[in-house]
Specification:
There is one protein chain. The protein is α+β, with helices and mostly antiparallel strands and about 300 residues long. About 30% of the residues lie in helices and about 35% in strands. The chain is built from nine helices and 16 strands. The strands form two sheets. Strands 1, 2, 3, 4, 5, 6, 7, 8, 9, 10, 13, 14, 15 and 16 form a 14-stranded mixed beta sheet that branches. A two-stranded antiparallel ribbon has the order 11-12. A hairpin with a 2-residue loop joins strand 5 and strand 6. The longest helix is centred in the middle third of the chain and has 13 residues.
Length: about 300
C-alpha cells in the first residue's frame, strides 16, 4: 500500500525520535513517502498532490489543524485518510479511537491498514472549508485566537494556558466588546443575539486532559450536525456548561442555552465581523458563515473494532 505521511514538525508533541520510529514502522510494510510542512496551509496542497499521485492513504502527524488540512486536500479524491496525534489536544484522533501517543497510535494504524478497517465519515463545511469535529463562533473562537497569538506558550503550557486564556477572554473580550450574531437553520430554527455557537460533526467538543467534554453526545460521523448556542455568558452559565459535560443528553435547552440536533444547513450572520475557529484553528473574522453537513465525504481509517461514529 502506498502511504504518504504528512508531518507538522513543530506540532506540540512531535519529536524527531518519535518520527524516526514511526517512519521505520510504516515503511516496514508499506511504500512510504514523507512530506514535512513549513507553513500554515501547506498540508492541503501536499495532501492533494499525494492523492492525485496515487497514494492509497494520507496520514497526518500533527495536531487537529494538520488532519483538518489533509482532509481538505483529499476531499474530492478517492483515498483514505488517518490521523496520528502530534498536537496538544488531538481531539479528532482520540475521538475516533486512536491512543494519544503517536508511536502507540502508529501500531493501531498499521493494524487497521492490515485489516482494511475503514469507514465513510461525514464532514461539516464552513464557508466551503471542511471541519472534522467542530466549528466555533464568538467567545469560543476568541479564546482560540488569543491562544494562537502566543503559540509558543500553547506548546509548552498546554491545557492550563487554554484555561487561563478562557478566563482572560471572559473578563476582557478581544475587541473590548462582544459582538452578537443570529443563528438560523434551514428548517426554521432561529436564535438572535447569540454570543457563542458551536456546530459539532462528532463528539466530544474537546478534552480536558484525559476527560472528554461532551456538549452534544448525539453528534457523530454518520449523522447531521449538532449545535450549541448561548445567548448569555453570565456567571450563571458556568454550572449549566459543567452539567452539560456530565449529562447523557449534553447541553440542556433552557434560558440562555440552546441545543439543536439534526442540522443539515445553518447560517450565522452578524451586523459586524465576528471571530470563528475551525477544528481549533482561528480564521479571519467574517460577517456571515454558511454551515453545511456533507455525509460520507471521506474514507477514514479507524482502529479495528471501532464504529464509524464514536460513542459518547
Amino acid at each position: 500500500m502506498h502511504v504518504t505521511l504528512i508531518v507538522n514538525p513543530v506540532a506540540s508533541s512531535v519529536t524527531r525520535r518519535a518520527l524516526v520510529v514511526i517512519k521505520k514502522a510504516i515503511s516496514a510494510d508499506h511504500d512510504l513517502t514523507v512530506e514535512e510542512t513549513t507553513r500554515k496551509g501547506q498540508a492541503i496542497r501536499l495532501a492533494h498532490g499525494a492523492a492525485r499521485g496515487g497514494a492509497d492513504v494520507v496520514v497526518a502527524l500533527g495536531g487537529d489543524g494538520t488532519i483538518n488540512e489533509v482532509v481538505n486536500g483529499v476531499l474530492d479524491d478517492d483515498c483514505m485518510v488517518a490521523p496520528l496525534p502530534g498536537g496538544s489536544t488531538n481531539v479528532f484522533a482520540r475521538a475516533v479511537g486512536y491512543p494519544n501517543d503517536a508511536v502507540e497510535a502508529t501500531a493501531v494504524l498499521l493494524e487497521a491498514l492490515a485489516a482494511r478497517s475503514e469507514r465513510p465519515a461525514s464532514v461539516g463545511l464552513a464557508n466551503g472549508r471542511a471541519f472534522l469535529f467542530h466549528v466555533g463562533v464568538g467567545f469560543d473562537a476568541e479564546v482560540v485566537d488569543r491562544v494562537e497569538q502566543r503559540g509558543h506558550l500553547k506548546r509548552y503550557m498546554g491545557h492550563p494556558y487554554f484555561m487561563a486564556m478562557t478566563v482572560a477572554t471572559w473578563l476582557r473580550p478581544l475587541s473590548g466588546r462582544r459582538p452578537s450574531f443570529s443563528v438560523r437553520t434551514a428548517d426554521g430554527r432561529r436564535i438572535d443575539k447569540a454570543l457563542l455557537t458551536i456546530a459539532l460533526n462528532t463528539t466530544p467538543y474537546t478534552y480536558l486532559g484525559a476527560t472528554p467534554l461532551h456538549l452534544a453526545p448525539e453528534a457523530s460521523l454518520s449523522s447531521p450536525l449538532s449545535m450549541a448556542v448561548l445567548t448569555s455568558l453570565s456567571p450563571r452559565m458556568v454550572p449549566i456548561l459543567i452539567a452539560a459535560t456530565r449529562r447523557a443528553t449534553g447541553l440542556a435547552d433552557r434560558r440562555g442555552a440552546h441545543h439543536w440536533a439534526d442540522v443539515t444547513e445553518a447560517t450565522v450572520t452578524g451586523g459586524e465581523a465576528f471571530h470563528y475557529q475551525l477544528d481549533g484553528e482561528a480564521l479571519d473574522p467574517v460577517t456571515e458563515l454558511r454551515l453545511e453537513h456533507r455525509p460520507e465525504a471521506i474514507r477514514l481509517v479507524v482502529p479495528v473494532g471501532e464504529p464509524a461514529a464514536p460513542a459518547a
